[in-house]
Structures are given as structure tokens and as C-alpha cells.
Amino acid sequence: MSKLYLIPTPIGNLEDMTIRSINTLKSVDLILAEDTRTSGFLLKHYEISKPLLSHHKFNEHKTSENIANRILAGESVALISDAGTPAISDPGYFLVKHCVEQGIEVECLPGATAFVPALVNSGLPNDRFCFEGFLPQKKGRQSKLNELAEESRTMIFYESPHRLVKTLQQFAEAFGEERKASVSRELTKLHEENARGTLAELIAHFSSKTVKGEIVIVLEGKTVVKKKKEYIKKDRV
């Protein structure tokens, strides 16, 4: 059946690819890949041989219409990212939006994404949380931090290894160095690390070592102090 499939790919450990995802990739007519070289390694590992087309943030506005037309003409297309679920801090949203507007069926398969294991193993409240992805690198960064100053939900951020310590320092300035947090890196890989503590402790920990791998920061929300209700006792008439 012609439709757009969004297929999560492993964030590190190739064994995290689901059987359903493998079978779907083997059945489609075309696979859209963020980086065809990276995806080529994964597809070769699972003996999947299908036409590959590059689809990334620099060309998605130009290629989405053509892809939608191919699906409308009867082809089935799968979108994968380099790692994780498409459209989560990766290309995908624009294509999905375009296909939905064209009445094309879109199906997203469940699978790997970095922020879920990072949140669950952080030890911080996960009943309510907000995913912020990558913060603006320059313009708008401080405004975003100011905006999040009153956020009571657990916050989740993605960050690159070379910016980790600086980001933690900015968090300490904005939210206080005693705010609890967790930093996960190299999730599902051999050298996975989940460091937990206050922002001050995490800054000290990561300042003393060379940081490698993709980073997920889980940050405790602001504690809301509930005021006790005051009851006024009225005199009976």
C-alpha cells in the first residue's frame, strides 16, 4: 500500500532495530535517508537492498513535493534518520506535514529515540516533562533559558559533547547550581554513561574529562511551593 512510513533506527546498538522495521524497509519502494552513507551501513547489516534518496534539513523543502507525488502515484516510501526517530530533532516534520496536507497516509513505527531512556533512568520525575531538543546556539538562547525559569516539569535537552560543560554552566546560572540533573551519553553503546547529581557536581565531573558521544541532559523542574489555604471562620448570626 502506498504511504509514508517513519522508521526509527538504532541510536547506537544495532540490535535495537525492530523486526517490524526491518520487514517494512524490505517492502518499500524507496528509502529516504538523512545520510545515505550512514544508513547504507545499517541497511547492509540487515541485508536490505532498496533505492536510497538523500533527504535532510538542507533539501527537504525542495524534495518533499516530489516524494509526495511519488507516493500518490503508488509508491511506498520509508523515511529514516541517522539515528533515532525521524522528526525528533531530525528531518521529517516538513515531509509529514506536506503528506498530511495531500491526504497521504502516514504511519510512524515505534522504536529507538534517545530522550526516553535518558528520562527514565535519570531518577527525576517523569510523569510530566517537556522536550526542548537543542537550544538555540546564539540568538535567542538566553531568552529561552529565561522562559524556562518557571518551568515545573522535568526538562529534556540534546547537546553536543563540546558544548556540554558550557551549557551546564549556563543552566547553573539560570536555575541555580543546586538544581538536580542527569547527563546521559553514548546511550546503548559500550561506553554508556549516566551521570546524576546537582548541576555543580555535574560541571565538576565533566570538566575533568574529555567528553564524547551524543548527549541528553535531563533537568529537574522548578519546585512549586503550594500555599496553604486560609479559611476564615465566620461568626454565626
TrEMBL record:
EC number: 2.1.1.198
Gene Ontology CC terms: cytoplasm
Highest taxon, organism lineage: Bacteria
Enzyme's top EC category: transferase
Swiss-Prot/TrEMBL keywords: Cytoplasm, Methyltransferase, rRNA processing, S-adenosyl-L-methionine, Transferase
Gene Ontology terms for molecular function: rRNA (cytosine-2'-O-)-methyltransferase activity
Start and end residues of each Tetrapyrrole methylase domain: 3-202
Family matches, as InterPro entries: 4pyrrol_Mease, 4pyrrol_Methylase_sf, 4pyrrole_Mease_sub1, 4pyrrole_Mease_sub2, rRNA_ssu_MeTfrase_I, SAM_MeTrfase_RsmI_CS
Function: Catalyzes the 2'-O-methylation of the ribose of cytidine 1402 (C1402) in 16S rRNA.
Name used for this protein in its record: Ribosomal RNA small subunit methyltransferase I
Organism: Marinifilum flexuosum
